[in-house]
């Protein structure tokens, strides 16, 4: 079992920045991917960015150049640095962990609200 705890969400004005953190605990020896998804009101959940334990990354085109994902394996933590935030970035952001056995785990989500 893997437990994920997110932090860093909040209210920010358009153009501002925010950094999300997610720390994993439990059976962390089995972790492969750590990443972020988001779900806005009335929309489907979508991938934001994800990383492997080896440092490979995938970033959605909608946030590429503005968001940066990073991972500290020693701390079992993944970060999402969000810059130049737009109104359309408003969503609940969920931390996601994938194990080498293809099990998936989710955090409870953290709200990011971007205002004008």
Walk me through what this model shows.
The protein is mostly beta strands and 116 residues long. The protein has no helices and eleven strands.
User: Alpha-carbon distance between the termini?
Assistant: 40 Å
Helices, by number, come to 0
Unreliable spans are: none
Number of strands: 11
Mean pLDDT: 95
* Oligomer status: single chain
Radius of gyration: 13 Å
Tell me the major beta sheet: 7 strands, mixed
Helix content: under 10%
Estimated share of beta-strand residues: over 45%
* Category by helix and strand content: mainly beta
Shape: globular
Which H/E pattern describes the elements? EEEEEEEEEEE
Describe the structure concisely for a colleague.
The protein is mainly beta. The chain is 0% helix and 58% strand.
Summary keywords:
single chain, 7-stranded mixed beta sheet, 116 residues, mainly beta, 0% helix, globular, 11 strands
Give the SSE map.
Blueprint: E1 2-7, E2 10-13, E3 18-26, E4 31-39, E5 46-51, E6 57-59, E7 67-72, E8 77-82, E9 91-99, E10 104-106, E11 110-115
Parallel strand pairs: 2-11
Antiparallel strand pairs: 1-3, 3-8, 4-5, 4-9, 5-6, 7-8, 9-10, 9-11
